[in-house]
Amino acid sequence: MRISWITQSSAPSVVEYGTSAGAYTESATGTSSSYRYLVYKSGQIHHVVIGPLDPNTAYYYRCSSDSTRQFSLKTPPAHLPIKFTVVGDLGQTGWTNSTLQHIAQSNYDMLLLPGDLAYADFVQPLWDSFGRLVEPLASQRPWMVTQGNHEVEKIPIIHPTPFIAYNARWRMPFEESGSTSNLYYSFDVAGVHIIMLGSYTDFDPDSDQFKWLQGDLGNIDRGKTPWIVALIHAPWYNTNTDHQGEPESDLMKQHMEVLLYKARVDIVFAGHVHAYERFTRVYNGQADNCGPIHITIGDGGNREGLAKRYMDPIAGISVFREASFGHGQLEVVNATDAVWTWHRNDDDVSVVSDTVRLRSLSSNPACKS
């Protein structure tokens, strides 16, 4: 597990930890850095990897030897079942608060976020306030994220380098998966292989990301990870009137969809559109029993509001759609079965509005590639 935190002044990049509260039998040392963005200078951003850790175990830890603050986390299980929370386009609004409250009430093992975290949009202190907002949850469970358009923060000439804050603050395990960029990576947890893709970096067949994805998919052992889940930000399938015709959706789909299809990826989660939509198994615009299920979950609580207008008539591949804030839960029960539920919180109460049982493509004889 990588522990990340920020101090306003110089402090040791050390995490002390153990399996009993207040008893820190182990310690690990990492690195720290800071960044400048126009007139803003960040605090010291610390990253420390602790472990190896036992699966499905509670650990207590403190950062920079700060005796006033103790945290606890629970590691994911080594084997199925496992429960994911999935939420996109989180932001920092009242809806964000209600979404986080509902997530806190679910006994999940890991959170997956397909882009658009803080909605800082060049205002760097908003990254700090977002960190404080999610700390109660992100300190307790692994939060695995990928980037969205609101993480780019590129200003021509004045600040030409994109993703400065995102890459400094949200460091993901990209090197461990053979990737050269924090913007795309993969990892295994329990019996699930999860691929985080970058919608806002190069994805054409000559790009590093495309070549990395080819290699990553080719190395998957469905005996160890019978499920494959991918996350993008800009959805490849979308019947909402918002975000139609964008290259991050259309061109990325054109280049990469066949790779995911041939690898028999089970589910593709996306954000970007501020609403919920679930598609049937689909490939190349048509229902296909061996294609992934596409789910748009960009309804975490952003400040821009909901995307309430859909195209009419509804496409035959779109199964359920609703413009409400909420989050999703994916419970992978075993090698063959999983349950997906979408929890609507548009009434300030978490209500299960959509649910579907899924079977893994690796267990479907008709989809053996």
From TrEMBL:
Gene Ontology MF: a single term: acid phosphatase activity
Record EC number: 3.1.3.2
Catalysis performed (reactions): a phosphate monoester + H2O = an alcohol + phosphate
Residue span(s) of domain Calcineurin-like phosphoesterase: 82-276
Record keywords: Glycoprotein, Hydrolase, Iron, Signal, Zinc
Keyword ATP-binding: no
Protein family: Belongs to the metallophosphoesterase superfamily. Purple acid phosphatase family.
Protein name (record): Purple acid phosphatase
